[in-house]
Amino acid sequence: MARLLFVVTGASYWTLKDGTRHPTGYWAEEFTAPYSAITGAGHEIVVATPNGVVPHLDVMSLRPSMAGSEQIAREQEEVLRSAEELRHPIELACARLEDYDAVYYPGGHGPMEDLWEDADSGRLLTAALASGKPLAIVCHAPVAIMATRRKGVSPFAGYRVTAYTNDEEDAVGLREKARWTVEDELVKLGVDFTRGEIWKPYTVVDRNLYTGQNPASAAPLADRILAALN
């Protein structure tokens, strides 16, 4: 049995460029799809958040229009209710990479508020990348890579990466309100940014780094993690 660390945003809002707070958190599908696949395969999951706060769900993610249907929304809600790990997260600062076989970051807009500049997350990501262990990051969560910079340089520079695109941010009407976007900042960081069709599953693997573009990419990303653990 493997042990995986899920690093989840602790933010309940995202500060827009006009200073207003946009309610957010983690995105349901990006937690539930990998959680169900990984625990269903018999593996253990530990959740870590900044300061050990109980993570906030972006309630928009459980709207049937966002989840895909009322039934899917109900199924995701049931998974979240049963996931005791969400109610008892450890402090991200206390997470030791040697205790885990893989690391996974679900998204939602929450990481745009906290993980992009979280030093503990930056150290963990740097260590995970160097370790060779599977490191998976989806949707908005790749902004956490920004915290790996040292003197302006990130160890992720040159890696092939995907993440939530500017086109997808446009489609939900938030790009013009954002201080910056995931795609723009990752390109500045020097990664080889790649993308698929908006809203369609799209994953990229470069060495031990696994990234997914959007919520629909979370399930196939989980399959890739499981294959890497076998």
Question: In summary, what is this structure?
Answer:
The protein has 230 residues and is an alpha/beta fold. It is 32% helix and 17% strand.
Question: Would you kindly provide a written description of the structure presented here, covering whatever features stand out?
Answer:
With 230 residues, this protein is α/β, with parallel strands linked by helices. It has one domain: Rossmann fold (3-Layer(aba) Sandwich). Helix content is 32%, strand content 17%. The chain has 8 helices and 11 strands. The strands form 3 sheets. The protein has a 7-stranded mixed beta sheet with strand order 5-4-1-6-7-11-10, sandwiched between helices. The protein has a two-stranded antiparallel sheet with strand order 2-3. The chain has a two-stranded parallel sheet with strand order 8-9. Helix 5 links the parallel strand 6 and strand 7. Helix 1 crosses helix 3 and helix 1 runs parallel beside helix 8.
Secondary-structure map:
Layout: E1 3-7, E2 13-15, E3 21-23, H1 28-40, E4 44-49, H2 64-67, H3 70-82, H4 84-87, E5 90-91, E6 102-105, H5 119-131, E7 135-138, E8 160-161, H6 166-171, H7 182-189, E9 192-193, E10 203-206, E11 209-212, H8 218-229
Parallel strand pairs: 1-4, 1-6, 4-5, 6-7, 7-11, 8-9
Antiparallel strand pairs: 2-3, 10-11
